[in-house]
Amino acid sequence: MHSLSPRGLAIVDELAERHDFSRDAIAHLVLAVADGDGQMAMFSHPQFGGPGQWMQGGMLMLSDPLNHALNARVDALCHEIGERVGGMAGEGIAGEIAAQQPAWLVAEENTAWWPEELGAPNATGEQNGLRYAYFAQARRLVVQTDDTLRVYDTLDHRIHGFAQQQGSQSRLTVTSQHGDVDLASLPVISTGKQPLS
Predict the structure, then answer these.
(1) In angstroms, rounded to a whole number, what is the distance separating the alpha carbons of residues 134 and 159?
(2) Phi, psi dihedrals of residue 9, rounded to the nearest 5°
(3) Rounded to an integer, what is the distance from CA 34 to the centroid of its chain?
């Protein structure tokens, strides 16, 4: 998880003015994109129509897929934040912010709930008592439900989406280049108990 420095808050103000969303909504999205290393985000904010997902390269899913105007505005905002967070070279504001990234996006103390040896995740999320952290390079997905922590091998899946199915049995489904994958089909590397943080 990240927090914004004074420079980061100034950038939030600038983005809020240009993209016509509230400071709270922009800050929420900046933190979500930062958690996804500028490449992806899982977010939930009323101004974005509730829960949504974004990935660099053109994937955006909002709760109201037919609201094309909102989709375009959120996509443009995510793309710009992704450039700033990821420090992509070249175009416009990206190069300007890339050198300043450590100054405007400052890591808080380590609040990692996943195994330390996995490092920093590419994506994290939390919903309805379930939370996950995805580590693309290590090919691992860590899922915590209640006080149980499971580490999954993601095999050859390059995960770019997460969905939690509701009902009598809440299940996590991931989306990869092979389509939707039920979490139960992935090998469990380890299972352990962990106090909730």
Answers:
(1) 8
(2) -65, -35
(3) 7
**Could you read off the pLDDT of 94-129 as tens digits, one per residue?**
333 333 444 445 444 446 788 888 887 877 777 777
Nearest to residue 3, comparing CAs of 80, 111, 79? 111
| Assigned token pair, 4 | 């914004």
Distance in angstroms (rounded) separating the CA atoms of residues 20 and 172: 33
CA distances from 156 to 5, 135, 136, 159, 176 (A): 37, 13, 10, 9, 9
Q: How far apart are CA 190 and CA 188, in angstroms?
A: 6
3-state class (DSSP) for residue 167: coil
Phi, psi of 164 (to 5 degrees): -110, 120
Quote the pTM value.
0.48
Alpha-carbon gap, residue 102 to 93, rounded angstroms: 16
